[in-house]
TrEMBL record:
Keyword Methyltransferase among UniProt keywords: no
Chain ranges of the YqgF/RNase H-like domain: 2-100
Location of this chain's protein in the cell: Cytoplasm
Keyword Magnesium among UniProt keywords: no
Protein's UniProt name: Putative pre-16S rRNA nuclease
GO CC aspect terms: cytosol
Lineage start: Bacteria, Pseudomonadati, Bacteroidota, Flavobacteriia, Flavobacteriales
PANTHER family, per database record: POLYNUCLEOTIDYL TRANSFERASE, RIBONUCLEASE H-LIKE SUPERFAMILY PROTEIN (PTHR33317:SF4)
Listed GO biological process terms: rRNA 5'-end processing
Alphabetical list of SMART domains matching this protein: YqgFc (SM00732)
Enzyme Commission number: 3.1.-.-
Gene Ontology MF term list: hydrolase activity, acting on ester bonds; nuclease activity
Pfam family, one: RuvX
Family (UniProt): Belongs to the YqgF HJR family.
Organism, as annotated: Mariniflexile litorale
Length: 136
C-alpha cells in the first residue's frame, strides 16, 4: 500500500500530515512555506509512494464555501497538473484549527509553545487526515 497525504493549505504556511503505509495512523509530517509547497511535494513523492492527496475544504456554517476557497482553487489546479496520477479528495476542515489548539492544551504544551502557528497547521492537517480515515 501507499501513503495518503493531507494538506491544510494556508496563504503563508501549509500543514502536512501523512499516513503510515498501511493507512491506519495519521501523523503530522511538517509545515512548509506555501510558496515552496509544490517543490516539497515533488521531493516527498519522489521518496515515498503517495496514492491520494486529501485537501482541507474550508466551509461556512451554512455549508457554503469559505472565502479562502478562492485561494485554494488555483493550488488544486497546479496540484492536479503536477501530479496527474494522484487523485485529490476534499475533506471538510471546519473547526480543525480550534481542535488543533485544544489538542495542544490537552497535551500540556506551555503557552509559548501554543503560539507556534506552524504546529497548529500541522496538527490541523493531521485532524483532516484522521477525519478522512474515520469516514473510510
Amino acid at each position: 500500500m501507499a501513503r495518503i497525504l493531507a494538506i491544510d493549505y494556508g496563504m503563508k504556511r501549509t500543514g502536512l500530515a501523512v499516513t503510515d503505509v498501511l493507512q491506519i495512523i495519521a501523523s503530522g509530517l511538517t509545515t512548509v512555506n506555501t510558496k515552496e509547497l509544490l517543490l516539497f511535494l515533488k521531493d516527498y513523492t519522489s521518496k515515498e509512494t503517495v496514492e491520494l492527496f486529501i485537501v482541507g475544504e474550508p466551509k461556512q456554517m451554512d455549508n457554503t464555501a469559505s472565502e479562502s476557497e478562492v485561494l485554494i482553487a488555483p493550488f488544486l489546479q497546479k496540484l492536479e497538473k503536477q501530479f496527474p496520477h494522484i487523485p485529490i479528495h476534499r475533506v471538510d476542515e471546519r473547526f480543525t484549527s480550534k481542535m488543533a489548539f485544544q489538542t495542544m492544551i490537552d497535551s500540556g504544551l506551555k503557552k509559548n509553545q501554543r503560539k507556534n502557528k506552524a504546529l497548529v497547521d500541522e496538527i490541523s492537517a493531521t485532524l483532516i487526515l484522521q477525519s478522512y480515515l474515520y469516514s473510510k
